[in-house]
Structure formats: C-alpha cells, structure tokens
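Proteins fold reproducibly. Look at a concrete instance:
___
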Amino acid sequence: MSVRFAVIADDFTGGLFVASHLERLGIPVVYVSDLHVLPDVGEQEVVVVATRLRFMPAAEAVFLLDAVTTALEAIGTRQIFYKYCSTFDSTDDGNIGPCADFLLKRYGGDRLVFSPGYPDFRTYVHEGYLFYKDRLISESIKRFDPITPMNDPDMVRVLQRQTESKVGLLPHRVLHGGVDAARAYVEEQQAQGISYFLMDCVDNDDVRCGATIFRHDRVTTGADALAIELAMQWRDSEGKFVAEEREKTVRGTGREAVLVGSCSEITLNQRDHFARSNPMLDIDICEGEEGLLVAQALEWARTFADPGQALGFSVAGDPAGVSRAQSRFGVMGAARKAERVLAAIAKELARLGFRKFVVSGGETSGAIVEALGIQRMQVRPFDALGAGSCISLDERRISLFLKPGKIGPADVFSAALAKMKTS
C-alpha cells in the first residue's frame, strides 16, 4: 500500500478544486472526507483529504493535523502538501504558521515553501504582495470578509506574525532567472537563517520553477497552482502508478436543494438570481434556537410537494443582518450556528429523499458533507462550470456541487443542478 502525493486541504471546496483539475489532467484522485477510510484506499497516485482546518484555533488545528498526518503515514504516503486558499485567508490569529511549524518539526526538514496565489484565476503574488483580481488584497472585496478580513497585502509580514521561524521572500525576479539560479538563492537564504520561503506567484513560470526546486521536499505548502504543478511533475518524471480502471459513478435520483452559507457579494447575487425562478427561504439565525429554525425550514419545504421543484435555503443575510448576528454570537459563533442550521436541514432533506445538493461556502460545504455522513467521493473533472462537482461513494450516490463563496457566474446554482441531470 502506497500513496505518492497527499493533499491536506484546509476546507472542502479547496480540496475539490485541486482534485477536479487533476482529474481533468488524467491524474486519478481519491477524495476522502473521513480519516477512517484511509486504510482502504490502496495504492494511489493522489489522495486529497478534506478537512475543516481553515478557521480552527491554532492549537486545535495542530491537533487535527497531527491525526491526519499520522493516518497518512500509516498508509505509506511519500509526499504531503498542505493546501490553503490562494488568497491565504488568515489573520494574525490564523493557524497557517502554527500548522507549518508542526509539519516542519514532524518531518525534520530545514525549509518550507509557501505559495499563495493562482495566476489562472487572477490571484497573484509579486514582491510578496498579494493581488486579487488585479487589486491589492487589502483593496479588494476580501477586505470585507466577515471571518478573515485581509487588510495587509504583504504575505511575508502576515506569515511572520504567525511563526517564530524566519520568513523570507523567493521573488519573481529570482524565479525568472531559472531553476539553478533560484535554487542557489534559496540555499544562500537558508545559510542566513531563512527557513520559510514565501514564493512569488506572478505567472505559471514562477509556479513551475518553484515546484522544480521544492519537488523532492517531504512537505510543501501552498494554494491550488503549486499542488497541481507538483503532481504533474511527479507524474511526468516518475510515471503513473498502475491503478484499476474506474467506472464513472452513476448519480443517485432524488429531489434538489440549494444551501447558501457564504455571505459574499458574489454569493448574494447568485442567491437572488436563483430565487427569481425557485422558492428560496431566507433564515435569520437571530430569530430562534437551531432546532426551531430547522423545524420551521422543513415545515416550509413540505409545502412544495412537486418532486421536480428545487428548493433553496439561505442563511446568507445582507451586511446589516451579518453584523447583527456577529454582534450577538461573535464572528465565529455566528458562522458556526449558520453552518449547523444548514447542515441539519441537509441531513433531514436527505432522509426525505433529496439526493442533489448545491452548497455555497467552503465551511458550509464541510459541515453539510459531515452531516450527510459522506466519507468518500468521486470528483468530476473541472469543466465549463468549474470545480465542485462530486458524487458520494455510498449506496445513496448523493450528487453535490460544493462552491467557494467568491466564485461563479450569477446562474451557477441552476447550472449546477442542470449538470446533475445530464452527467
């Protein structure tokens, strides 16, 4: 039993993004959302382990990461990639630095690369400064994120505040000097006490050069672009494992639901677009206890007897509603209550025969997958709709489209449901 490359994703949608791109490239991926099934995965090229690490307190995150890496070591994993969002999504109290400290200590390395950014999706790092859609992250919509407002664009500075290890920059100008020059630069910096390297990500040439330099390190970290490039380089240099051919999993049949947890401006527009043609229940988490809110939602759902009618459930309030909830429950308290409400609704809908779910929000996706008791999924290749399409590998064959809050066209919810009818 052996796994060449394991991606530990800090949320479910991020893991799907990597998995769907690799599937499109012909690299088979086992997508796991429960550590208990890892001993059964067999010999694989890539395993993606989806977690809910992103917003955990540092100590709790390190504890979970310890469990994940222990489980991966037990099945003979050769290389580990710790995957976070391309926009880094981490405040001074974030856990990326502490998780990196744990990984470096566990595997006894003397350096670790960090590579936020994803040029193909207009997220770049230049001279250590993070840009989102051609604007500094601190001037973009990410500065209004309700949980991780990104107010400092200097990623070296952000990471340094989370760790005692010395953080340096591997800049674009060095990467474009070629692999040999960039490797020599890294070695020089290591001699000066730098152990963490924040890598520029201006274009895909930066990603390719960085992947070549760090490819043989036991542990690497970054966003989707570096993970995908590393997997491709290992495949091209070492060849594929011999794997059994997989049949395409057939989707289950049943009713359809959209569950909206993200409150980004993009998601709110998508919710409103869907609501023009479908029933949409807006749930105010300040209006009652979780059990009552779930019971009211299910009572509302039962009023729509047509099995062909898709239903929507949203806890994504307007900015005033979000502020009110955060004032009452705290930032994370409000987020967790909203997730639990939607997850409980999804669990009951599945019991009632719903088998197709579109979910908006990375943390919401994780909560719903856990509530549905899904342990493994087959991921569909990235296509015109993007990432996020998967099917549970259990007898229910639940179809899911798990979407990060900040991406997708206005009609993405309806388009995802339509896709579930045809592929």
